[in-house]
Structure formats: structure tokens, C-alpha cells
Design brief:
The complex is a heterodimer of chains A (about 525) and B (about 90).
Chain A: H1 7-15, E1 20-24, E2 27-30, H2 31-48, E3 56-60, H3 65-76, E4 80-84, H4 90-100, E5 104-107, H5 115-121, E6 127-130, H6 137-142, E7 147-150, E8 170-176, E9 184-189, H7 190-203, E10 211-213, H8 222-232, E11 236-238, H9 249-254, E12 259-262, H10 264-272, E13 286-289, H11 296-305, E14 310-315, E15 325-328, H12 334-337, E16 347-348, E17 352-357, E18 369-376, E19 382-383, H13 387-393, E20 394-395, E21 404-412, E22 421-425, E23 429-432, E24 435-438, H14 439-450, E25 455-459, E26 462-463, E27 466-467, E28 470-475, H15 481-489, E29 500-504, H16 517-525
Parallel strand pairs in A: 1-11, 3-4, 3-5, 5-6, 6-7, 10-11, 12-13, 13-14, 28-29
Antiparallel strand pairs in A: 1-2, 8-9, 9-19, 14-15, 15-16, 17-18, 18-21, 20-21, 21-22, 23-24, 25-28, 26-27
Chain B: H1 6-23, H2 46-60, H3 77-89
Helix pairs in contact in B: 1-3
The chains are: A alpha/beta (about 525), B mainly alpha (about 90).
Chain lengths: ~525, ~90
Amino acid sequence: MQRPLWSGFLKSSEKFPARPAILANNQEFTYGEVRERALRLAATIQSLQDPSATPLTAVFAYRSPTAFIGVLGSLLAGNGYVPLNRTFPIERTQVMLHRSECSTLIVDESSLPQLDNLLQAAEKPLAVLIPDLADVQSYKTQWPRHRFLGATDLQPSATWREPKFENDSIAYLLFTSGSTGIPKGVAVAQRNVAAFLDYMVERYAITETDRLSQMFDMTFDLSVFDMFIAWERGACVCCPSQKTLIKPGKFINEAGLTIWFSVPSTAVFMKQLGMLKPGQYPSLRFSLFCGEPLPISSAEAWLAAAPNSIVENLYGPTELTIACTLYGWDPATSAAESELGIVPIGYPYPDMSVLIVDDALNEVAPGQEGELLMNGSQMSLGYWRDTAKTAAAFLVPPGKTEIYYRTGDRVRRPLDNKPLTHLGRIDSQVKIFGHRVELGEVESKVRDACKLDGVVAVGWPRTDSGFGGVEVFVEGRESDLAAIRQTVAADLPEYMVPRRFHFMERLPRNANNKYDRKAMQKLLEEGL
Amino acid sequence: MTAVTPDDVHAFLQTYVAKTLRDQAREVPADLPDDCDLLLNGYVDSLGLLELMTALQDHFGREIDFNELDAEQMTIVGPLKNFVAAELAKS
């Protein structure tokens, strides 16, 4: 049966009103408190929103109680949420707000310094909810075009009405890197997330005593796991500060985490900084990784540090809702099932199907390599307001009758009942700390900034699980590098901004006279 | 070998940050005050921080256990330099 995404939270809040739902800013907030505050936001949005408005609310909040309460408030109002991130350049945030067509915006205190800039670019009047401020008069005076509501202006929770729920009601709209230079919005339905949650909460036997990490920013869809898996069963989602993210060892023990979920890069870093000592994290009962390749060495080191936990490797693009295959690491047998030193991505979730195809989208024989296509209950609605891109990625392969999503990931079609192994990408997408980066998007920004055509972006430096960043090669003479860098950085999140620019009279080319990215990578390996 | 002082570490941090920023064609600050937060000022990103930890170990010629350094403090010049000097003083 279909159910709205907020229903699990409400049920838990009735069952466990005094238990903690959120740990943020070093403070715990109970289910009762969070419910009251989320319902007030929801009731306020319901009282303001035109029935013909796009059913989405933007949440401009970062690792704060208001970020979580804002997500719940948006959903309880009957809207999907669009996370905005103050660590991204404001230009990118403006584009996301504009493209999403939101008419309501929830802002937390730490994002307020960017609010004026965001409103400056807003094309239509917005209702701005600032629950962290009692007095919003100065905003009202400065921006007569928009409406502002502070803590004391919110509707009482009793006025909240259960919203209408439809089959395709959106849960969230997330923007991912697009190869043509413009981020793509992926629209995920509440039913997609419900299918994911149903399988995961059972598999990990989540109870109200569990404490889940929240290592992912809300602009990264893996954060949906942390929040909603916890709230389905009355558990607590534990959110570290921006700095603790880099060095989370103490946080694991102090917060008493039982479920760990991060990108493999975090494990790689922790190992290098001496934070994976044997037996260091006894409280963990599951250690989950997703977002980029998991090196065998990281899985082994993590298991030694968290010996009471089961290590699992999850895989899935945003378009297939968070994760859709998984592999349980078994120290005795898994190394033999791995390829290229990377843990397999395993087996599809029960309600998801796999098809592995060649360039012409025909299924390859068992044992052969091909592109991974998948479909099932977690297949999202596609790209927001972009039917052409949706049709290109969500299609019916020859000889089939159902739509599949093309992941762009190269895998081997398993023999017998072996797990799927991830072999790389079919395009120039790279993973940086688990974030999807289309090198084409970086190239397009650099091309515009330099006004030169020959631009090639390369993932660099290589880490055990992917890449640490991006460097670019530019054909032509170096001009004002500081200005170029600034222009590029104004449009891209930090992890996409080239760490170095290399200007060359002529870029390396291959036999077909195409730019040779591998040759450039080799130059970097040789210490350029 | 003479003991490494917090000032020695400070000098290294200054040189390291200057070189990193110059490589990126960015403005180099005249000084790194003790309360300067390398991460929040954008002088290093999270990968840059790891590179810095590695560079500190390479420069001073021994492994440093960063496990005990508080996460909120580790990117601030003063606490970082004092921690590194104290770690290097351990036999």
C-alpha cells in the first residue's frame, strides 16, 4: 500500500514522544518537540500556499535542527523538499531555487547571511519562513515583495490538515552534476522512497534504541537514508558539525552510534589519520558505505575498527533512489569475489531488476562486461522539467517492454549467482568524495571563463576510492588565472572547482586527434 | 636533534598555505594568526587538510597520531601547532 513519507515519523512520534529524534548542534530534540515544530511549519505553509503552486518547498539550512524540521515540515505540508546548501556558491543555489519553482522557503540561522543574495535573484514572490528568528521586521522592510514569517508568526500545530497524497507525490528534488554545464534536477517520488525504506528497516532491524550517523549533506541523497530510516522506527539521527565530518572518530563513540553510513573516502581518510585502530568503535552494529567504489583495504580496516559490525557496500544513483544493490562483506570469501581491489556492489534489492547491455542496448552474455540498466519500484520520476534528458536516460531497450534507467556504470554480468562487480564508468563522470561530477560540466565552466575551447578536466589526485579533486588542462596562453579561478568557483561547489590549471600550447591528442585525457593523467602521475 | 617548537610548526604552516594558495593563483595572507581557521577561511578543503597532515609528517620526519586532536580545533592554527609540537616532543 502506498503511504506518504512523513507517516513513519508521525507514527514514531506517537509511540516514542520523549525519545530523541535528532542530535544536532550537540543537542538532542525529542520526537514530541520535533513533531510540534514541524507541524507548525507545515500548517503555516498550508495557510500560505496557492493551490496551483508547484508542490515543493526549498529548505535552505545546514546541519541544524531547523534543517531536519524543515524537511519534515515541507513533507507534512504536502510538498516535496528541495535542499539548498550554504556551502555551495550562491549562484548555484539561485539556479536551484529558480529551476525548482518553489514558492516557499525555510531558512535556518546559519544560512541567513546568504539570504539577501538569494532573494535578490528570486524572480517571483516567496513566502520565507525563518523559525530561528523571533523578529523578521528588517527583512519585511527590505523586501516588500516577499513575505516573511518568524517563530512567532507560525500557525499553531492544531491547524495542520493531513495533505492529499497522490501516487507521484514528490519526496525531494535533488540537483546533480550535468555534463552540459547545467545541474539536472532528479525528482524522486514518495513511493520510491517508501519502497527503499521498507526493505532497509527490515534488513537492518532498526529499533528505537538505534543511533544513526548523518555524514551526508542534505543535497546528497544518501542523507535520506539517515533521516528516514531512523524516523521509521523511533531511532535518532545524529548530525556532526561541518568540521567533525572530516574527523569523526570521537563523534562515533560520544554519540553512541550504532549504524554508520558514509562514503568510502571517509574510511580511507580515517585510516590514513590513524583513526581506524582495532576495536576503536565497538558500538557500531552496521557499517554501510555507498557513493563510490569501496576498496577491499578500507572494508578490512573498518571491520577491524568496528568488530561488532557487519560491513555492507551499497550502490545506487540518485535516479534509482538512494541505493538499489548491496553486498555484505564476508572476511572469509569476499576478497575472492572482488575485482580490481574493489568490493562488489552485490545483488539488486528484491523489488529491483538488472539488465546488462552492450552499446546497442542488447543484453550481454553472462561473464561479459556491459552497462548496468535497472528498473523497479525505486525508479524515480526522471529529470525535473526536462523531458528530453529523461527520455534519453529512461528508455525501453530493444526487445523489452519496460522502461529501464541507464546508470552509465560499467559492470560484469555475473555468472551463476555471483555478485555484480563495478568496473568503472562508460562516460567521463568521476566521483569526488562520493559526489557525482561530470567532467564536462567543469570543462564547460572553464571554457566560458577562459574563452578558450581546448579544455580538458581530469580527476586528480587519485585516491583509493576515486579522486580527491579535479585539475584542468587548457590549450592556449595563460591569462588572468586569479580571475578565471574566481569565475569558475562562483558557479561550482568546492569539490568541483579545479585545484590546479595547466596551460599548454598544445594538449596531448590520441590517434584520432581527440584530446587524450589518459595522457594528461599520465603527466600528473609523472609529477606535473 | 633540537626540539620542534610551536613557532617552527607555525612557520611551516605559513609556507605551506602560501604555496598552496599561490598554486591556485589565489591571494596569500600576510600572516596566519593563531585563531585563523584554515578550513573555514577556505585555505584548505577536506582533501587539502589530509595533504597538510601528510606534509607535516614528511617535513618533521616522523609519524604524528592525529587521533587525539579535537575535530573542532584541528583546523585552527594555534591549537594545531601546539598539538603537533607536543606530539613531536613525545619520545
